[in-house]
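Batch manifest, entry 17 of 40.
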Amino acid sequence: MKYGEEFQVLRQIDKRKWILIVVLVAITHLFCQTLMLPYESADNGDTGEDGENVEGVNGEHEVKLDSNHSDGKALDNDSDFVEDATIENDNLFDEDADTGEETTIQNGGNQVQKNDESRRGLSLEQVVKPNGELSADSELEANRSSTRFDTKTTSATNLTSVIASKHIDPLSLVTLGLNESNNVRTARKKSSTGDLTQLLPNHRNHSLVQMDITVSSNGSPVKKKMRCMMPPKTITSISQMERLLVRHRARSRAMRPRWSSERDQEILAARLQIENAPLLRNDRELYAPAFRNVSMFKRSYELMERILKVYVYKDGEKPIFHTPIMKGLYASEGWFMKLMEGNNKFIVKDPRKAHLFYLPFSSRMLEHSLYVRNSHNRTNLRQYLKEYSEKIAAKYRFWNRTGGADHFLVACHDWAPYETRHHMEHCIKALCNADVTAGFKIGRDVSLPETYVRSARNPLRDLGGKPPSQRKILAFYAGNMHGYLRPILLEHWKDKDPDMEIFGPMPTGVASKMNYIQHMKSSKFCICPKGYEVNSPRVVEAIFYECVPVIISDNFVPPFFEVLNWEAFSLIIAEKDIPNLKSILVAIPEKKYLDMQLAVRKVQRHFLWHAKPAKFDLFHMTLHSIWYNRVFQTKAR
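Output type: structure tokens
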């Protein structure tokens, strides 16, 4: 009897241990799932601009991205500038940046009357046009807003019963996780906001978007700040980025190929020639001050034109694959896809002759085709690309030879870093969302310029600006209040100084697309603050209108960082220095400004799309940076 009782006690103890172990495993699993969710500022919106007309590869057909709120008109949004509309919980994930209905801006943008629930607001550029078109910034930032709520997907899914029983709007549970996890995250955010927290203004519109709604243990709604509405926890300065570039050039992290290839030997021979390039003096084609090393760039570009061969996978079904978007915010990935697939100079049909392999998918069409509206779950998008890469690896031997290191993708949607994580981790990624704290690898990945194309048939429309002597405006910005940074900018400079023309959405008196363009053409400096993400089409837009860009976006890797010297034609200012913005600008000597403005005009050619690619244009610069990074990452067998 005595032994039997002891055995029963032992069994009860063992059962408790097992229960404890199972509970710990479950908690660990949930925690790991949370960590695997995407970076909270998930890129250009949840559903993107579902009202956008997308021109096909040759402009012969259109892919219409329909939505419940869209009338299907062509998108003419200017990503950052359209962001000051009141955001309502009902449509935070309905980001149709359709420009079909009128939007009226009142009182300098404090109130926005919307006929389209999905619209986020108007930007100067988009500002009310007779045909209802918007500027690109609005759509981009509107899209980004929805993604902020997307990162706690797993926990939200597990709480569907709470939604049903308490009749709580699913949006309020998007970022809901374990109560303990929420408390920890909130505490970390409060302790890591840095100096910028001191600058956060009590701006009414700002407060509307900075609140994330969750549910407390007693079922009552609790508001907390979203990660996208707080300064980054860590900051990598431009000088630190340059050191990372030098370090990664000297020591490649790429996988050593599993077997040798003639193509590797050609690349290694090209690297030797690039490193020993003859010194150029007064090159007639290139503006030397705008480059880190114009001699190396020129030699590398010549070698690319002479020997580079690219294989484009035919695998993949339309519209996610082989269907480029030719206008709007995602035009960069679309124009590259169209020009790459139609190129006879670089493309080879025999993959054995290729130095690089192109994965021709559209991150925008991936989102449009597969994302379930209001699901707040993008796992299926990443799974789709995972299965595609596995298919490529199983069907062809080339992926396995390098682990994908000689494969590349070009994606401008902000979700691309999340969608390509893990299964495409070793590929060269040309991304618009070039955030060094969100997985962007300096020296391997390429910062892709985000270009807003208003006319697919004439991407160079309105190109150029006034000469320096006729630029009477010191600094100009107009845009909506997406993210934590722009309200700070307006708090310090809106209506504070006649030399600083800093606006939210433009007042109705000057609310037209041409007014926005004329402001950029007439300004010395164009302010380019981040929105929800580090990237903004306004950087390229400033260059397009020959205005010196002033980039205010911590952790943003400027386009073509591996070859261009951005200090020659732009100002990069830390976010914490916004209160000193004017003093920084007026302290620039006139000669230096003239040199910078000249450099802007000289580099402009590198940021332009052409229906037929031109030497040193945006298509060739993108392909060159991919080639250039591969050259310095290649290892011998």
